Amino acid sequence: MSELRQPEADLQAPVQAQGPVEAQLFGAAGEEAASPSSSSSPVAPSFSACAESLPQEALTVLKSHLVVFLLLKYRAKEPICKAEMLNMVLHDYEDHFPVVFSQACECMQLVFGMDVKEVDPRECTYVLVPTLGLTCDAVLSDGQSMPKAGLLVMLLGVIALYVDHAPEEEVWEALSVMGVYAGREHCIYGEPRELLTKVWVQEGYLEYRQVPHSDPARYGFLWGPRAYAETSKWQVLEHLLRVSGWDLRSFPSLCAEGVSDEEEGA
Questions:
Q1: Buried b / exposed e across 2-39, counting CB within 10 Å, b at 16+?
Q2: How far apart are CA 245 and CA 37, in angstroms?
Q3: Is the pLDDT of residue 263 over 90?
Q4: Which of 102, 112, 125, 160 could form a disulfide with 233 if both were Cys (CB 3.0 to 4.6 A apart)?
Q5: Residue 33: which pLDDT band, with cuts at 50, 70 and 90?
Q6: Do 66 and 116 form a contact (C-beta atoms < 8 A)?
Q7: How many domains does the chain have?
Q8: What is the mean pLDDT of the chain?
Q9: What is the structure's pLDDT at 7?
Q10: How far is CA 243 from CA 125, 188, 224, 228, 234, in A?
Q11: What CA–CA distance (Å, rounded) separates 87 from 221?
Q12: 237 torsion bin: left (phi>0), alpha (psi -120 to 50), beta (else)
């Protein structure tokens, strides 16, 4: 992780991503900063005074490096210590840890579908766990895979909004806001068509079916049995609405459906 030991040089130069994953993170940073997200990360996002003392570009660099550090710890299945984050990533920018950590946690949740959970308040130790308890990233056997639960949560939410059956063309249009396109390799999610129509279908998270009586044939996505077993439509929609900063009360039909889902699951 020697590349994480050069923040001074990075902060003196224009922001330039060093690889495809970092490029994705730098691109996402501006969108997150502009969104009214009220994500429930382990650090309260009320550090505007701290953030204002460094240029946004510098904060973006630090956040990107911290996200890469968190991903490396996740791959190694190691706990995350605040002292190590300060030593390996922030160095002389320790005073900016609260805002950088908060933004990194939000990025991990939105892009990778991973929540940062505090396990030892005295030692300031954290672990990464999949959002909503989804286990699709439980095994990263090749040591190179990126957590993909964030994309799965987004997809399950799109399907739920289409009353359980989302037309394929609408799914790809919705995922395009994340830079995900059918047949185009993605630096984090790989080849998305194969992931959606084969990998997650085989794992039971999705069903990929032809629309009845469609000619020419058209296809759509449905929730699979494993998705129903690990989460619920209400939990997925509540999560997506929360991270987007929208008020759940603005969607009375979703609230009513959520109550129904919870009663059925009780």
A1: eebeebeebbeeebebeeebbebbbebbeebeeeebeb
A2: 4
A3: no
A4: 160
A5: very low
A6: no
A7: 2
A8: 77
A9: 42
A10: 24, 20, 24, 21, 14
A11: 45
A12: alpha
CA distance 159 to 219: 13
> Is 138 part of any domain?
no
Q: Are residues 8 and 127 in the same domain?
A: yes
- Say how far apart CA 146 and CA 140 lie, in whole Å: 8
- Mean pLDDT score, 70-97: 90
Q: Is the pLDDT of residue 227 over 90?
A: yes
Q: Which two tokens stand for residue 140?
A: 């990263």
Q: Is residue 81 domain-shared with residue 170, that is, in the same domain? A: no
What is the pLDDT averaged over residues 212-237? 93
Closest among 41, 195, 160 to 106, alpha carbons compared:
41
What is the model's pTM? 0.69
Instruction: Check pLDDT > 90 for residue 48.
Output: no
What per-residue confidence (pLDDT) applies to 39? 40
C-alpha span between 62 and 10 (Å, rounded)? 9
Q: For residue 44, count CB atoms less than 10 angstroms from its CB and return exposed for 0-12, middle for 13-18, buried for 19 or more.
A: exposed
Count each helix (H run) and each strand (E run) in the chain, helices first.
Answer: 13, 6
Residue 57's pLDDT is what? 85
Q: Which amino acid is at 28?
A: A
Which pLDDT score, from 0 to 100, does residue 224 have?
Answer: 96
* Together in a domain, 119 and 13: yes
**Three-state secondary-structure class, residue 80:** strand
The letter for the amino acid at 119 is V
Domain-located, residue 81? yes
CA dihedral for 182, 74, 130, 83, sign (positive or negative): negative
Mean pLDDT of 255-260: 56
> Considering 100, 132, 164, which residue would you say is the last residue of a domain?
132
The first and second tokens of residue 35, run together, are 């969104």
